Amino acid sequence: MASRIEQLVGRINALLDSSRFAEAEPLLRRALATEPTDGNLLMLMVQTCVHLGSTDRTLYYARALAAAHPDHAGAIHTAAKAMRMLRSVQPAIDLCREFLARSPDGPEHHYVRNTLMLALHDQRDFEGMLQVADGAPGGPDAHPRLNYSRAVALLQVTRADEGYALLSDHCRALEQAQAGSPGDSAAIRTLSDLCYATTLSAALSAAEIMNVHQWYGQRAREAQATLEPLPPLAPLPPPPRHLPAASPASPARPLRIGFISADFREHSVAYFIEPLLEHLPRDRFALRFFHTGARDEGTMRLFTASGGDPAAWFAMAGIDSYTLAATIAAQQLDVLIDLSGHSGGTSLDALLHNVAPRTATYCGYPHTTGHPGVHYRIVDALTDPPGSEWQATEQLIRLAPCFLCYKPPASLLAAQPRTQRDPSAPFTFGSFNSIIKFNPACAELWCQVLAAVPGSHLLLKATGLRSPITRARITGAFTDRGIDSARIEFADFIADRTAASALYNRIDLALDTYPYHGTTTTCEALCMGVPVISRIGDRHASRVGLSLLSAVGLSALAATDDATFVRTASTLAHNPAQLSTLRAGLRDRVLASPLCDGPAFARAFASAIESMTAAAHG
Known about the structure:
Layout: H1 4-17, H2 21-34, H3 39-52, H4 55-68, H5 73-85, H6 89-102, H7 109-122, H8 126-134, H9 144-156, H10 160-177, H11 185-198, H12 206-224, E1 255-261, H13 268-279, E2 285-291, H14 297-305, E3 313-315, H15 321-330, E4 335-338, H16 348-351, E5 358-362, E6 376-380, E7 395-399, H17 410-413, E8 428-431, H18 440-452, E9 457-460, H19 468-479, E10 488-490, H20 497-502, E11 509-511, H21 520-527, E12 532-535, H22 544-551, E13 558-559, H23 562-573, H24 576-583, H25 586-591, H26 598-616
Parallel strand pairs: 1-2, 1-4, 2-3, 4-5, 5-6, 6-7, 8-9, 8-11, 9-10, 11-12, 12-13
Helix pairs in contact: 1-2, 2-3, 3-4, 3-5, 4-5, 5-6, 5-7, 6-7, 7-8, 7-9, 8-9, 9-10, 10-11, 11-12, 13-26, 18-23
């Protein structure tokens, strides 16, 4: 006959199996009062408190679990995972490191190692992740999950081709292991990561990139057939067939437009979305926002720009894809606009549920999604010229003249562009782009520029450059090509945003990355009076520079080949008067250009939305 505690545990497990966490929690407390160090009970309590969103209690029981079972890999993994979920990241790292120092090997130790790698990822210590993986007994190949996390780290430290190859092998291994299980969610998420990896590899052709996204799309389509249906909803009346040219009062309901992103915060995406939130007419569009990421002061700025209606904003961080999909569907949108694609914080899993009659992808991802539930991709005629339709599974909607509208943050505008350069300083090229966009092709191109301008320097700034290992690797890419290491400079991280913007004043001429162009950094440089040289390629990611430069009347700075890129940079470097003329008044020129014309951009965007809804409702 089962003991009283065994009966209690049976009731607890039954409640947890039904996701009745609020009912299970007091029973767990009763059981722990009798068995306070029971590992299974403590692990169940930690998981229950996580589901209930109880930060203090989760951390309390996580620490209790680790203290009671310091040599149990499962207990340490559960405790550290909970700490990490609640952003108590450094304690999670310390807990895992202490455990692995005491016991470096064991049958379940890869769980602790992987949790440690994920916590280091939270701290953007990607070189640290690689050290953990490479230091595992048997190496990272000993367990697929470690190799997967290693691939993710490689993408972040200028080793994208290695990361892509590892992820590709991982995806194929998953497919073989799960043959006969179409639509496996883990396999689809891994394919989504592989799609993202294609954006960072300079070795892939446009056709190869498209093939990977079609592979993802095929598996995603298979998954759709296995999804649990969303709750049924009463239909709304259809929206008006055509939007009015102005904004007169209309008896027809406004169009319901949703935006979904993990980046409604201090993030590049925010600088290009804010003009829409400010200028889309409220009487014609009812906007909804599904924020799947962390909130910060940038979130409040966007909230205010959107009209400050709490009912229009949905905090969806950490929510499972089904609940997210049901929440979106309940808003009965006419159009949902995804701002992430396969980038970090992607919500493409939720979009498999067909949560809106029409879905578009925009701004946050530089390729097609391949997703069967995404109907449109918003671009322009320079990023995606006629004839490039084969590179997208979505229908292209081209805005004119540019698919982006930039609103410079107040912190940047507070920094004034320099009025004259220090004549004793070496001519300085620069790039403040993310280092994930740096690759062998980019290194080769920039080395040719440095060789053409003897004595010139290159200034690099990015958060990923904090690691001495990464700095040494990037320096090696230049010295291997004959450039003296003394000509490569690294700027330290600057927390103050205005001071960070003022660092552009050290740059005479900015060099764009290739083949994945900068976007925000190009706009920042131009607003700080720094011209940008860009190399045009054969895909959206390597044509954004052309679009941005054309929008401010500087299309001559977009080069069609390597030789023209080098010649353009060299010519300006050797002609200080010409460069000075180009820099003079550049900020005012940018702010007065279509790139920063929020009202005009909102009108073009509204027309694009109208075309989508017209197609959806016949």
